Structure formats: C-alpha cells, structure tokens
Amino acid sequence: MFLVYFDYLCKKFREVSLIVFQRMLTEKTIEKLQILAESAKYDVSCSSSGTVRGGKQGMVGNTVGGVGICHSFADDGRCISLLKVMLTNYCMYDCAYCVNRRSNDIRRATLAVHELEEIVMEFYRRNYIEGLFLSSGVVRNPDYTMERLVAIARDLRTVHRFNGYIHLKSIPGASRELMSEAGRYADRMSVNIEIPKEESLKLLAPEKDHQSVFQPMRFIQQGVLENKEDRKRLRHVPRFVPAGQSTQMIVGATAETDRDILHMSSALYGQPTMRRVYYSGYVSVNTYDPRLPVLKQPPLVRENRLYQADWLMRFYQFKVEEIVDEANANLDLEVDPKLAWALRHPEQFPVDINRDEYERILRVPGIGVRSATLIVNSRRFNRITSYHLKKMGVVMKKAKYFITCHELTDGYANPIVGINELHPERLKPLLVSKAQQKKAAEEMQLTLEFLNEESGGNE
Amino acid sequence: MLVYTFDRTLDGLLSAVFDAFSLRQQPEMLVGKGEPLLLFCEEVHEVVTSDDRAGRVWAGLEKRLSRQAVKLLMVSYLSELPELDTPLFHYICKVFRQPEGRTSIERNLSDPDVLAVTNIGRKVIYEQHRMLQFLRFQKAKDGTYLGVVSPDHDVLPLTVAHFRDRFGDQPWLIYDAKRRYGFYYDQQEVTRITFLQEDSLPFDLDSGKLRDDLLSENEKVFQELWRTYFKAICIRERMNPRKQLKDMPRRYWKYMTEKQ
Fold first, then answer.
1. How many angstroms separate the CA of residue B218 from the nearest CA in chain A?
2. Which pLDDT value is given to residue A407?
3. Interface test with chain B among A111, A165, A376, A381, by most B beta carbons within 10 Å
4. Are residues A98 and A132 located together in one domain of the fold?
5. How large is the ipTM?
6. Rounded CA separation B165/B178 (Å)
7. Could you tell me if residue A188 is inside a domain?
8. Chains A & B: contacts with CB separation below 8 Å
9. B85-97 vs B51-64: helix axis angle to the nearest 10?
10. What pLDDT score does A12 carry?
11. I want to staple B240 with a disulfide (CB 3.0 to 4.6 A). Which of A77, A258, A397, B33 is the partner?
C-alpha cells in the first residue's frame, strides 16, 4: 500500500517537474534565442554539405551530402540550413569589426546546455534544420570556451543520439587535445581568418594574430590526415571532421584589394582539407569606431564578384593570377570575372564548339559546367548549332561573341561578329546592362568614404 | 497523321511503344483517351494497356539504357504533364531503333525528344528536393509527426526513402493535399494511405495545420521559437526579397511554419 502511494508521489513529482522544465524553456528561451541568433548571423557559412552519412539504428538523422539541404530562406535571401547560434555572446575580445565586441552595449545572453540541445533536437525532428552550427564568444580563456562547445557536440551525439550535421567553430588559441576531441563529433570545423593581411588584423583586433588562426587550422588538417592513415589500417575508426574545414574573410572593412583576398583563398584551397572560403561584405555594425569605414550599405556587388572568382578557381580551372594581376588588383564591378578575363584575352577566341576541348569551352562566357558537359556529350552524335546551344541553356547573349559553331562560320549571309571583329572595348558596353552599371557605380561611391587611419573622423 | 490514344499511365505508354513496333507504325502523337483530337487525324489507334507488354518494353529499356537514364524516364513520368507523352514515346522508340554498340542516345541532348524528357525529369527532381527542404512536421499528441504538402508534380513517392532514413525513430505521416494521399511510417514500415472520410480530416487542407486539440503539448512553443529564429537570422541591411522568392517560391509558403 505504501509502495503504491510512493509510486504515485513519484509520478506526480515527475509531472510537476516536467511542467516546470517546459515553462523554463518557453519564457526566457525565446528571448535568448533571438539575441544569440542575431549575434551569430554575421557568420556567413551555413552549408550542410560535404558528408554523406546514412541513418543509423537507434539514432536520429542523416546527412545527405551533395549540395546539402536549405530548409528556408530568410528575408535577406540567405539560406537557412543549420541552426546558427552562439552559445553565449559575452566576449572578452574587442575586435573592431564584430558586433559582440566587449565594448559594445548590446543585450547579452547565454543558452543553457539543456536548452540548446532540446531546441536542436526538436527543430531537427520537425524538419526545420539540417543540424547545428555552434559558435561562441570567448569567455575566460579559449580553452574554457572550446570545452563547452565540445561538451555540447558530445552530448548531442552520445546522449541524444543525434546523427545530423554539426558544424563547430573552433576558438582561436584552443588546445590541440580539445580540437581533436571536437573533430570526432563535428562534421565540419571552421576558424575565421576575417582579415587577409596580418597588419590590418592587428590594427582591428589587437588580441588576435594570424598565428592563432592558422594553428587550429593546422590541427584540424593534421587530424584529418592522420585519421585517413588510420582508416586505411582499421576500417571502423570513426571519421574525423569528414566535411573538412571552412573559413571566412570580411570584405570592405580594411584596405585589402581583391588580389590580396583571392591569393589568400587560393593558398587555402591548396590545403587538402579546406573546402570553402566565404566572403562577407562588411556590414557597418560599429559605426563609431574610427578604424573602420562608414558604409551606407554592405559592398554586395564586390562580394558577389569575389564569389564568382572563387567559383572560377574551384570549378573552372582558373588560376588566381589569371583572375587578378598587378594591373587589375580589384575585380571589375561591372562585368563578372570570367567575362573580364575573356575581354582581356581576345586571342583565345573564338572557340569552336564542335572541335575544341572541354577546358576551352568552359572558358567561354555564358557557358557553365553543366552546358559544357552537355556540349561535349552531344557533339558525338551530330553537329551542335546555336539553336541547340540555346536549348541546352547557354546564355547566347554573351556566348555568341566568343564562339563559332556550324552555321555561324559558313556564309556571307551571316557575317561573323565576334570579339576579334568588334574589339573588347566596343564589346564591353554591349554586355553590361544599365542596371548593372548603376549598381556598380553606387558601390564605387561607397568606397570613397573610407576613413582609414584618420583620427576623429567618425560621425 | 497517325495518332495513338492511351490511358495516360506509364504502362499504357509502354504498351503504345510495343504496338508501334509490332504494327510497324510510327505514330506522330500520343493523346490521352477522351481528349479532343487535332484536326487532320486520319488514323487513330487505341492502345490497350497490358502489363505484360509494358513489362517487356521496360525490361528492354533497362538493358539498353544506364540506370540513371531509366530512373530519369520514370521520374519524368511523375511530372503528370500532358506535354511529356509524345516526347517520352519518341525517346523510347529511338532507344530501340538505335544500332547496337553505339553510344547510348541518352547523352544526345541535341535531340529534341531527349532534351524535353531530360528537362522535365530535372524539373521533377528539383521539386522533390524542395519537398525535402520545405516540408514541415507538426507533432501530434500521440507522437506522430504530420507534414502536409501540395507539390506541382507527384513527387511524394520519391521523398519517402529520405524521410525514412532520416526520421527512422519517429512515426510520421506525409500527406499530399492536392492528390489526397499520403505515406504513413509506424517505425517499422511505410504504407500508402488515403483518408476514407475526407470531410473529417484531423488537419486543415488549406493551411496544413493540425487541429489544436490534437497538437502535442509544447508544439506551439517550438513553432514560436522557430519563427523567432527565422526573423532574427535576417540581416536587415542586406534585404533581398527577390532572391528569397527565387529560392523559395511563394506557392510553398502556405504550409511552412515560419511563413504562416
């Protein structure tokens, strides 16, 4: 009898505690999530790509690889794939470009470990997200902060049996032991370079240097390579950071040219584990700081051109010297870098669609990886004409000046008007729309307001 | 002009291919049964659907095409577009007509029929991917997760494998509000279901919302959290509604928690 009563009490207590627990989650959590998402949003990376891992018995989730899955798109058009959030936005550093810098008077919050884990699991089960992208302000010291991030990743994997995507930010200066533990639970890890030149970084973030960024990068890379060797011998060794690492650079906060930025990316892509470099157009968050330019709007066109150049390096077999050189240290804002290269090199054209090799076809403006593959596959059956090209999705408006195919070459009825006949300087205005010109001009004006090294020039 | 009529099923289309070869004919068009015929149709042949014949044609296709191409054929059929019938028919005929040992026709994208089928197939695959992106589950009191969608093409069957792999430890129901059927997973296997009484559905077909008394206890809290997060993550200085609409067309919004 007594036992039954005791049992009843226990049950009641559990119910009550459950209700209390849920109420805790509702009132403060919404506010905290809001604060911490707003603090995390300037980090660009949100991709869930790079790992293919099927579902496992007794675990929740999988990762699909390929291009990943974007579950939503925010009003700024950016993909929402992972729950991008900071564990805390208290930070002991005072980096000029960061919203969360110590001297900023903003709302601060810290998510409790159980809150964050519950949010991740419940969001995931409702198909809102692909996983978690966890970052944090630095509290006490790098190791202390990193340890808390690792603890959450470990909990998610071992307690909640979470098998989805985890992207962990590694805190600059964290120890090797913590990094190698983090690598066992995370799919991807990242350390942000933020500023490509060390002297500019030192100016804006006196507590940081490049060493503190490259050291963790090296840890991750060594971990991955060692893991690869181990897996050759023992098949069941768990994978270490299977989706590799990524990093980010801020564009427009310092005086670096596109050439500096792209040379840095090119060097990074030379490392075996670097998968993505992100570029983040600087949003004026700390307008009062005289070390930073005052921008009316973030340099979006420039950011876009940098991504295009990045794509050329990764998928179009361009070398960085071909995209930017001493004479052209900054990318042309009016035309995309591939077209700009073509206009600088008229001697490479026209390209014969029916004869030339894949690599040359890929260099034609208006032809992408997909249409180049289609062309190479289809031309074994019959001659490709401009009609076919249009149907395959080639942008003929651009491409027609750079190619010859069957019917454009034969005949007096259709005189050839290509880049060599028109000359690049007359061709360029034909390919730039008024809207593009206007956008580029607006952004050019923005860069004039650069207030670097002036003291007291802030408004 | 010679026209074949068929019942608009995949088996019917494959039977039509069988007929074309056994009768040594080359019809110019395929038209669904009961649909108005064009002018100048001198000859009309009615295709009788036969599982056996369709099976033989399908087996032949599997022998002659790569697995990818066969999958693309099947996927393109799920588009339910009437303009697919004739190109798909011609494509299949061309597969059987091509001489042995040549590079397979599936890679000849300069052929209008191959290109049309491939493009439609790709459209269907895009939409399938959008289901994986934009389907939203609500948790019911009994622990079942419900997701309602209404895709343009009949892509629900293509998404089942993904959801089963990902959410293997929770019971779920995905429902196509346009075609009135769905798939239910009971942590063991997936079954295709339809509701017998469509007027007493536990959820609203237009908004996909589960009835309030059936929602699990803190479902509303998590929906609110998600909406908060969605708003907070946007950078106001970079507003770009055009890009948002391009990647997330408005027709998907009505069932999405953050846009309701």
1. 8
2. 64
3. A381
4. yes
5. 0.92
6. 25
7. yes
8. 165
9. 60
10. 56
11. A77
